[in-house]
Amino acid sequence: MIQCEDHGLCISTAMEVADRICTEKRLKFTDLRKDMLRMIWDGHAPQKAYGLLSKLQVKNHSAKPATVYRSLDFLLENGFIHKVKSLNAFVGCSHPSKHDECYFLICDSCKEISECCDSNITSAIKATTKRNQFFVKNTTLEIAGHCNACSKRTE
Amino acid sequence: MIQCEDHGLCISTAMEVADRICTEKRLKFTDLRKDMLRMIWDGHAPQKAYGLLSKLQVKNHSAKPATVYRSLDFLLENGFIHKVKSLNAFVGCSHPSKHDECYFLICDSCKEISECCDSNITSAIKATTKRNQFFVKNTTLEIAGHCNACSKRTE
DNA sequence: GTTTATTTGTTATATTGTAACATCTGGTAT
DNA sequence: ATACCAGATGTTACAATATAACAAATAAAC
């Protein structure tokens, strides 16, 4: 369970940060993209593309898969969200400006995901890839299990 | 590019190990499952489910998606293969008996995958999850980039 | 204001994965 | 031997995820 006292704050912060970055980079933060990002930030659990599509269709009756995937691409490219590959789902990024080296703790029970950006893991990975003479472009680290709250609950 | 002088040896070793484990655990290593494992070990690049289906249908005209996915489930459950989540593809495991803590180096260029089972990474992950009071069930670490051979080639 | 590039709409389809039930096969108990 | 049972495979149908290709709308740049 994520420690956010006020999830409204998570959302508004994420929206503001995205807005600022879009202004800086002269990207178009359209209504569609805003809606998508807000929907993804609905909680700390990842959202699935077709779930987002359903929600989108409430407002925008003509939304189609391509509508959703194009917005997702935009949000991914600019670091506003992550794709959780082990779940085929999408989750908001809480620090889009330094988006690298983000690792995920995925609770199988409450479904919430928290980012853990740990420099020790990063340097361990760097050491290993260097030893293997491997040139890294992208790292996916997804750790599934139970968060503290949920593992207490099930005891 | 993987350093295997003789890929026939990779295949035969993998088949023998699987056979031994199946005997020990009283699992049925059927012709279908053997064919599937051999096809996955066709090389060090990951194989996609529907690609395997096509190959399987050459021998077994009646093969269907379920045929393939059920075999894949068997091979996954018993540690003979890994699912590469970032690619939705499957690759043979070269040490099924100690199957945990396997990390992957995925070359975007030659597509080959090598396992890098590094205890430093494992302990860095353990330290981080402990600090976050997170109880790990399963870890996915997939590192994409270029292997040494390919990065030399493109220079 | 016209051109240009980007975004969105729209249709169609490709790819990946499961559910549910029928049939077969090989071992076990009688 | 044979009746039974469990696990494996066959079969049909479909669900879920994702992309391609082209048209229309919109915003930016000239």
How would you characterize this protein structure?
2 copies of one chain form a homodimer. The first copy, chain A, is of the alpha+beta class and 155 residues long. The first copy, chain A, has 2 domains: 7-93, Winged helix-like DNA-binding domain superfamily/Winged helix DNA-binding domain (Arc Repressor Mutant, subunit A); 103-153, Ferric-uptake regulator, C-terminal dimerisarion domain (Dna Ligase, domain 1, 2-Layer Sandwich), CATH 3.30.1490. Helices cover 46% and strands 19% of the residues of chain A. In chain A, the strands form 2 sheets. A 3-stranded mixed beta sheet of chain A has the order 4-3-5. In chain A, strands 1-2 form a two-stranded antiparallel sheet. Chain A is globular. The model of chain A has no long low-confidence stretch (mean pLDDT 94). Chain B binds a DNA duplex (30 and 30 nucleotides) through residues 28, 30, 32-33, 48-50, 62-67, 69-70, 74, 88.
